[in-house]
Amino acid sequence: MDGVHVLVVHNRYASAQPSGENKVVDQEVALLRGAGHRVEVFERRSDDIAARSLPGKAAVPLLVPWNPAVRAELAARLRTSRPDVVHVHNVFPLLSPAVLAACADAGVPAVATLHNYTQVCPPGTLQRDGRPCTECVGSTPLPAVRHGCYRGSRLATVPLAVSLSVNRRRWWSGVTRFFCISAAQRDVLVRAGMPAERLAVKHNFVPEPGVRREGEGEHLLYLGRLAEAKGVRLLMAAWDEIAASGGVGVPLVIAGTGPLEGEVTAWAAGRDDVRYVGLYDTDQCREAIARSVAVLAPSTWLEAFGLVVVEAMAAGVPVVAAGHGAFVELVEDGVTGLLHRPGESASLVSCIRRIANGPARNREMGQAARRHYEQGFSPAVGLERLVEEYRTAIAGRTESMGGSK
């Protein structure tokens, strides 16, 4: 079977904080190239904003809804390279939905991975003040502006809200196939009015980690962004309760960075039962996971996927995760890990104690987690599903062009 020629479009998130999206994009590109497919990349980097002049920085919010220079540059690139399909990931803040107009200009079909909920919620989290929020879903994004949902700022939220409003139809008409990274995410988007026939579920895959757990593990691990939506404050409260009753025999390791870094650093200081280790690189992440009794994912927002959960499964490590969003389909409660009641400290405490104090059951769950990874989230499975979706999009565009002649 002939290879597919793909142009990947992505605005890379700032490198100062861990980004699951950047990781997914890089892994998919490597997977496709390794299988003999031709992959080019068209990208912008949020890191580059810092080097702009003051007027250049001030202009960035104006480019969020529409960047005409990107449209022209990408259209020219597409006419020259003639890929079979364009795969769009993140377009905020420097690319904008103008990339879809460029695809239409060049007559190349576009597919898009929806890594979060920015199609229906300006900040993409479906959360406000630490609680689930769907006020803008199926409606206008004015509530998000009123509440300052992006970075706590009304002004910063405006460009996102404007982009969502003016580009909604462009997204829905300009993308041949949307890839939802979980069925839970797809359900939310269908209820919000997105075209169900264009929404396919394509879970992210995770590469073989190269290291798996041996023995029972030596710590519990939180690995991710230090943010309210990730359940970091909930975890700290639960761990304080566990510590007050004597602990569970192993320390808690927290790896990552984010807006709550100062708070986490102060909380962990001087404690024997907590270690804050900062931002780990890829190899350090894999080693830390493989040495875990369990990986903790107590997110208070409705995660669209949860990469760290699958990374744990790949290493044969069970997880304790919040029982909502994509976690419900990733984790089989009591089989590959444990699900706690979302936002409830007592439930999280109970699950941590159960998973840390039953080594035989923990080992069984880790083995079941590894089998689940092999069946649904391995590179072989990921490649097959990705190429299948590309071919569906290419065939759909060919048929529609044939029908319009």
Automatic annotation (TrEMBL):
Residues 216-371 form the Glycosyl transferase family domain. The keyword Cell inner membrane does not apply. GO terms for molecular function: glycosyltransferase activity. Its EC number is 2.4.-.-. It is an enzyme of class 2 (transferase). It comes from the Bacteria. Residues 21-206 form the Glycosyltransferase subfamily 4-like N-terminal domain. Pfam families: Glyco_transf_4, Glycos_transf_1. This is Glycosyltransferase. The lineage of its organism: Bacteria, Bacillati, Actinomycetota, Actinomycetes, Kitasatosporales.
